[in-house]
Amino acid sequence: TLTAKVLSSIIGYPLVFIRFESVISSYLGETASNLRKIFDFIEMGKWVVLFDEFDIIGKQRDDPTEHGEIKRVVNNFMLMLENYEGDSVIIAATNHPYLLDMGVWRRFDEIVYFEMPDAERRKRIFEKYLKVLKKKDIDLDKISEETEGFSGSDIEQTCIDALKKAIIEGEGYIDMARLRESMLRQKDKMKARRQGKP
Asked: Is 61 helix (H, G, I), strand (E, B) or coil?
């Protein structure tokens, strides 16, 4: 998502963010129709178009858990990509590349993998999000080590949670205890995500 924003800023094309919850429909044929409208729109201008959580629409067609409608949607989407002749830059993002249909992979010119941030990158992300408030006795090297397995988004959510708590409680600073508390809450969310819980 951040990459799409940066690319949009650099090349000067407005960013169009496609949310699949507004595209997917329970009515037969309506999802493909919604996708067609999106492609008709983006062909009329120059945009950076981000299909986020792309695995929702680009699933493997031979997945036995999916019904025929999703398979038709994947086929339609691939045809739309193949026949697209506009000047927009189309980006698809997923955290689950193993779910994507092989035919979908072939329709994109470039594939970019983003590895999980290492300790140094985690530290930089914490520094970025925590700079808006004073820090009291925070050891970012230690926190960076303790957040192995956190994505950039997980760190962002941890920091936002800690900042909100500090502001709500009337504190003008973030301390180690508050940051650890938010970090543990985020770990619980990550665990629930892996187990498929809301």
From this structure: coil
- Contact present, 150 and 158 (Cβ < 8 Å): yes
Least confident among 98-102, 152-156, 170-174: 98-102
Nearest to 166, CA basis, from 151, 182, 153: 182
Calculate the dihedral angle through the C-alpha atoms of 51, 52, 53, 58, rounding to the nearest 10 degrees.
10
- Residue for token pair 């956190």: 150
Smallest CA-to-CA distance from 32 within 41, 23, 40 is with 23
Mean residue pLDDT of the chain comes to: 84
What is the per-residue pLDDT for 124? 94
pTM: 0.67
Return the closest-CA partner of residue 180 out of 123, 142, 128, 124. Answer: 142
